[in-house]
Design the sequence.
């Protein structure tokens, strides 16, 4: 039999729940957030954070706006113990921030935990023990009653430790580790026993944290478990139901979102999803999902580049370029149709209005990004993207007909190089294609006069090094110039399209003109720049003609 055998795995066990309410709910406010970057995230690193890195991460978490931060497992690590002491003795914890520390339900570890917290203004003591079927039966080889007694003893020692340090405002937290692998009625039974010890009140609530320590089911199953728990746990009004999901099935964010719909009040996770195995729940993604739905996440992700810099430096893990909201490429559009749609929507967007831009769920500027990073050019890109880049980077506002002409040139370049075409490369291509084609043709000077309703154009014209006198007349200067060129070249020239604008916002700004000229029925485009519109237009016509002949 092949070792790749799905039959050795058991089907997902669901909750028999006929009265589920969470599918009809929406999230209209942010949950309480707790960052576990410094503990759960740190323990998953190949090289755990150094004390300076932990401090930098802590300060960044404070800047983002976290009010609860799990700072370590002080009883298990001298480094963590010393870090907690540093935060307290150096008064580095803001008054509106509560630190949280983790401990197993063992008396000596709980006592050591309280030693680390001497002098803290307020703190959450987070005690846990594993309750899942597989842990009970195969790891600890204990009965349900014995496992429950471990939780009761741990809760008792936590309460006794707090009573000895009455100057600190304490809050207690209990986690039945591997909650999702625990029989739901038994999980409630264990948590009720802990609540009986702590006797929380609506004014001083305890936190009951329900971890998907290993994600083993679809997120809707987790939501059913959370709703069932909330409906059946004792003293629901005196507890905060907290979630702690992992990403083993790739659904950590979805599980937390559905868990909040099901009644949870609080969410633990890490920035950008660092954590054991496939990672913890990503608070950036969940928070930005709320933000994109018009809900204040109560965390500040406008400093996204700083967040990424600190996380990468402290974890030595690179953020994936396609990471939701944070990745380098998540707002980048290479597809031509996508670029065109984005370009058109951004042109219509009015500052302060409702964000409705195709392919962009949020405004990149809200995360400290800019629109120049949105449209990127490669062989899959189209005219809208090319036009957007030229306008944003160089002020060149190509008309639609010129976009159609120029786009294949950029695409050909991308196919030859087999790489992204940078904004500077695009500008260079534009210049060489439309602005620098008239080296064989040049106007030394020209005069325009008007008589009997006609404009008369005369110029000293250099063609292939030879000086020629151009003369022509027409109903307007451009028609007169075209007539003079047509006569000299013995070709039929007609201006099909014409656009112009300035390249700046002051009197000294250059003008740029774009033309499409038919030369003996062959259409060709050109562009020209000058200090005045007429000079730019004449230059554009010469560039187009030079390209054709």
Sequence:
């Amino acid at each position: 039999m092949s070792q790749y055998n799905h039959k050795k795995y058991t089907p997902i066990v669901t909750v028999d729940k006929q009265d589920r309410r969470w599918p009809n709910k929406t999230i209209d406010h942010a949950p309480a957030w707790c960052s576990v970057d410094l503990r759960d995230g740190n323990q998953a690193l190949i090289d755990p954070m150094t004390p300076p890195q932990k401090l930098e991460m802590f300060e960044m978490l404070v800047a983002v706006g976290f009010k609860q931060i799990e700072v370590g497992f002080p009883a298990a690590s001298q480094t963590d113990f010393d870090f907690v002491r540093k935060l307290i003795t150096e008064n580095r914890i803001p008054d509106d921030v509560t630190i949280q520390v983790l401990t197993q339900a063992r008396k000596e570890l709980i006592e050591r935990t309280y030693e680390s917290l001497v002098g803290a203004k307020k703190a959450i003591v987070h005690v846990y023990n594993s309750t899942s079927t597989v842990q009970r039966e195969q790891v600890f080889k204990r009965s349900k009653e014995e496992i429950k007694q471990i939780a009761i003893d741990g809760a008792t020692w936590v309460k006794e430790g707090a009573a000895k340090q009455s100057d600190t405002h304490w809050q207690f937290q209990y986690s039945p580790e591997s909650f999702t692998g625990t029989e739901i009625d038994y999980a409630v039974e264990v948590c009720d026993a802990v609540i009986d010890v702590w006797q929380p009140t609506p004014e001083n609530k305890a936190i009951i944290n329900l971890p998907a320590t290993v994600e083993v089911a679809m997120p809707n199953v987790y939501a059913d478990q959370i709703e069932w728990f909330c409906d059946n746990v004792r003293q629901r009004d005196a507890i905060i139901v907290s979630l702690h999901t992992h990403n083993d099935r790739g659904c950590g964010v979805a599980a937390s979102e559905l868990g909040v719909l099901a009644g949870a009040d609080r969410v633990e996770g890490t920035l950008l999803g660092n954590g054991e195995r496939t990672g913890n729940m990503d608070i950036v993604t969940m928070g930005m999902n709320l933000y994109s739905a018009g809900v204040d996440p109560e965390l500040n992700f406008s400093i996204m580049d700083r967040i990424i810099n600190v996380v990468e430096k402290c974890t030595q893990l690179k953020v994936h370029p396609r990471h939701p909201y944070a990745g380098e490429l998540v707002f980048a559009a290479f597809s031509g149709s996508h670029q065109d749609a984005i370009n058109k929507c951004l042109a219509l967007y009015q500052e302060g209005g409702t964000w409705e831009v195709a392919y962009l769920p949020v405004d990149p500027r809200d995360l400290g990004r800019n629109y120049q990073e949105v449209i990127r050019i490669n062989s899959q890109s189209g005219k809208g993207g090319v036009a957007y880049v030229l306008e944003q980077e160089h002020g060149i506002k190509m008309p639609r007909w010129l976009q159609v002409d120029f786009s294949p040139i950029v695409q050909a370049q991308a196919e030859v190089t087999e790489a992204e075409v940078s904004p500077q490369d695009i500008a260079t291509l534009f210049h060489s294609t439309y602005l620098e084609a008239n080296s064989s043709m040049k106007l030394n000077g020209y005069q325009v006069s008007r008589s009997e309703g006609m404009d008369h154009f005369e110029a000293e014209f250099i063609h292939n090094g030879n000086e020629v006198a151009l003369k022509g007349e027409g109903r307007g200067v451009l028609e007169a110039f075209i007539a003079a060129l047509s006569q000299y070249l013995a070709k039929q020239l007609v201006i099909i399209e014409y656009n112009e604008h300035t390249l700046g916002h002051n009197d000294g700004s250059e003008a740029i003109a774009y033309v499409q000229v038919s030369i003996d029925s062959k259409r060709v485009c050109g562009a020209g720049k000058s200090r005045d519109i007429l000079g730019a237009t004449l230059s554009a016509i010469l560039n187009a003609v030079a390209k054709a002949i």
Notes: The radius of gyration is 34 Å. Residues 441-548 form a domain with the Double Stranded RNA Binding Domain fold (CATH 3.30.160.270). The longest strand covers residues 441-451.
